[in-house]
Amino acid sequence: MPKKDYMKCYFGCRTKGPFHRFPKPDYPHSDRFDSWKAVLSPAIQNKGDSYICDNVRICDFHFEDRYRLPSKRLTRTGVPTLNIPIRSCVERTGYLLKPSTNQSNFGHFHKTGDAGPSGCVPSINLDDSQREQHLENTADGTAAAREVMSPPTALNPPPYEGVVERRAVPVELHNTTDGRPVARLGTCLPIHSTSAEEAARLALITHHYAGLFTENILSPLGELAYVRLDADTVEKVFVNRSRRILITSSDGRLAQWRAVPTFESRNRYVAGTPVVDGGGALVSVVLARRHNHYALAANDGEGGYFDTTEPWRVMDPPAGALVYADRWFTTREELRAYVSSLGPVDAGAPTPVLHRGARTRVSLVAPGGRQIAHVHLHTALTDDVEYL
């Protein structure tokens, strides 16, 4: 290919770059490659993966700031979501779409007509009271349909942020005793959303993932996942295993902790929002958030459990403090004096303690104050974590 034709954006943008190559189509990059490939027309897709990697480039104009590094390269999770021409989306999906009114991202779309068959996860049958069609004239004269779906698991209304696709994921929506919404898919239920009585019952009959009760073993969590927004809409996200959030949970039998994977989104999800894979199998649910990063229930990553009936205590020691059990000290002399004053380990249920901060650690403390176990955690984020 001549050089003057080589450095052009697929979408025909008038720019000097930078231009970004497609990810490799092989594992572990295959999911990300498929997301890039999805913005291409069928004619280009049919030319094959090798042709796309060798010949197609997408300029910086189509990537959000969060995907850009100071070197002008993209992060390993970067996908084109901005300023995607409507025609390209219509060709590859068969849906009638219109750009989002969100001016910060013209690549966000919401449906404006018949979207055809649902995705590969089970469909929800909605009656007339659950689905209302409203047609309104848009500024360009196009008739747009607004579908009111029940129940949504996103707190923000459409048009949604991010890479949005049409796929049905069934769910029930309930309220906790303090009025917070929580999604429930089958027997999957966040532990922090249960009452003490319900937790005691479920602890005997279900699996205890990090922060989650479930009767079924979850499918493996890959690099790409789909998070439910409403009855027939999901957000396509990339799972981040380098930015982990520490989740703690107690069910009356075990006190568990785990540094779980996250995904980034500007949508606002409720606790228990289902997360599925490309085949529609449940791989996780949403548990907590830290700014725009959501924590996923998972059994991979640093973690463990204490065999105790006591709930977690959370503490925030000052920077540089010396931590022992459920206390901290400013000098080693104070620490030694306190430990010397303690008697032997008392009988009774010990208390699990999470010490947040730059040096995160968990401790198990006997009723008399003596420390039974102490574990340093090196990779987990613990500050500003909000359980949903």
From TrEMBL:
Function: Nuclease that cleaves 2',3'-cGAMP.
Entry keyword set: DNA-binding, Hydrolase, Metal-binding, Nuclease, Zinc, Zinc-finger
Catalytic activities: 2',3'-cGAMP + H2O = Gp(2'-5')Ap(3') + H(+)
GO molecular function: 2',3'-cyclic GMP-AMP binding; DNA binding; hydrolase activity; nuclease activity; zinc ion binding
PROSITE patterns, A to Z: ZF_THAP (PS50950)
Lineage start: Eukaryota, Metazoa, Ecdysozoa, Arthropoda, Hexapoda
Domain THAP-type: 1-83
Protein name stated in the entry: THAP-type domain-containing protein
Domain of life: Eukaryota
